[in-house]
Amino acid sequence: MKNVELPERLAKAFRNEHYLAINKARMDHLESLNINWKDKSFLELGAGIGDFTEWLTEHGAIVTAIDGRRENVDYLLQLGYDAYWLDLNERHEFRFELRERFDIAFCYGLLYHLTRPWNLLRSLYCIPTLLLETRIAETFHDEYEPNDDPSQSITGHAFIPTRDMLWGALSISWQDVGIPIPLPLHDEYKKEQRIVFRAQGEIYQ
Fold it and tell me: Measured between alpha carbons, how far apart are the two ends of the chain, in Å?
């Protein structure tokens, strides 16, 4: 990774105390999953400024990073990562192209920033394994997010699903859906405001 100065606007969004604490909990949890990251090909959705891109790369993974904000993608490219812009609210018919290219879809901290999260999940069904981290709520609802914040929803609207809604949606496309226990060590997981899913064994061949 190249040494590139982080623009002030991105630093304000991605380097605040809350964001850093959540990411530390997430990364510590990833270490506990006993996954062999080396040489695995990852499609990372919602890469932001590359915190997990860096983590995965340092663990030997081959990462293609996707983000819906061009300023984030520009920064990722400056860092030297394989990064692309994509409208993540739309459904994309990736199909066999992704199955042949990627082992794991990695989607941490993205789904709840989308207006139509189900479009993204349907687009990924052809990747054998999905690692998903997201916010959840007791009842699904929409939330306003400031769309001028590069870490938030582009449209200004976010959709917060329930755990059962997610489980059902994932079970449509993957045979084995589970929650890796224990969850990350952060209050938002203890309060059931966030969750992690691991889904594998695609149903549609």
Answer: 36
Q: Counting every residue, how long is the chain?
A: 205
Token pair for residue 180?
Answer: 């890796």
Q: Is the pTM of this model over 0.90?
A: yes
Task: Supply the angle between the helices 70-79 and 51-58 in degrees, to the nearest 10.
Answer: 30
Cβ atoms of 94 and 72 closer than 8 Å: no
Integer Cα distance of 107 and 195 in angstroms: 12
Tell me the C-alpha to C-alpha distance, in Å, between residue 81 and each of 65, 102, 122, 133: 7, 16, 26, 22
DSSP 28-77: HHHHTT----TT-EEEEES-TTSHHHHHHHHTT-EEEEEES-HHHHHHHH
| The residue type at 87 | D
Residues 60-86 have pLDDT tens digits of: 999 999 999 999 999 999 999 999 998
